[in-house]
Amino acid sequence: MEILVCISVVPDTTSKIKFKDDSTKFDDNGVTYIINPFDEFCLTKAIFIKENSGANITVLNIGESKNDPILRKALAIGADKAVRIDSSSSNSLTVAKQIAKFVSERNFDFIFCGKESIDYNGGKVPGYIAAILNLPFANACIGMEINGETIITKNEIDNGTQICESPKPLVIAGQKGLVEEKELRIPTMRGIMMARSKPLEVIGVENDTSNQHVLTSFELPEGKKECKMIDSENVSELVNLLKNEAKVL
Ligand SMILES: Cc1cc2nc3c(=O)[nH]c(=O)nc-3n(C[C@H](O)[C@H](O)[C@H](O)COP(=O)(O)OP(=O)(O)OC[C@H]3O[C@@H](n4cnc5c(N)ncnc54)[C@H](O)[C@@H]3O)c2cc1C
What we know:
With 249 residues, this protein is of the alpha/beta class. It has helices at 37-53, 68-77, 92-104, 125-133, 189-195, 235-244, and strands at 2-6, 9-11, 19-20, 25-26, 33-35, 56-63, 81-86, 110-114, 137-147, 150-157, 160-167, 170-174, 200-204.
């Protein structure tokens, strides 16, 4: 079995988000980068499949060379091979087209992506890949079983779950539930040593700038307003503030 896990490299969740150049660019000064957490669930699920049924796991990132340590981490966790398509990853559709082209030139049984990146939160890349390649798509996947040639996925929908049966290959946009948080694999010392000799292939591409929208500026969310304390007995003041200040009544 051949499994592809797409890895998005995102700022650590504890990073302080700032913008520069008149709020047109993300300021990554002092920011630590990590594997997108949704991709970690996918990578661990791929490792479970490998351990149960045998598989080769390739991890793929569209990005610049500063992402290589993150790909090495994925290799240390248990992937067999890493590929980086050397591109600035400047737009979800371009990223999806590059992944789709890579997939179309190889044979994968499963294409795992996270359900969304935690930086730009587009939630677009996996759906685009499935659409471009005309493949079945399990979105917001919280469970997956292999039953011979049929893949059964459990997917989160508004107020419930749906169970789907699909043939291979399929695109899976995974999240927590595919595996549990306590099952996530972390690199061991042996894994880190082995990762050094695993292949990390870099593929050069010409950046496709057609069909892109351009990020013109960012805005941070409004800061939290000052908290007003009132006496618990003073219901009329509470009603007054909710009505006239917060304007929620
Ligand atoms: C320097 C820089 C400039 C940018 N400029 C623009 C811009 O001008 N316009 C714009 O629209 N966006 C821009 N972006 C955003 C960037 O293109 C998106 O973060 C990226 O394409 C992923 O899109 P998404 O958030 O929709 O991913 P999602 O669809 O939320 O990601 C879901 C999953 O898809 C996979 N995936 C996503 N991205 C990658 C990747 N790069 N490699 C491998 N797998 C991936 C992962 O499995 C991820 O969990 C910029 C980003 C950077 C770093």
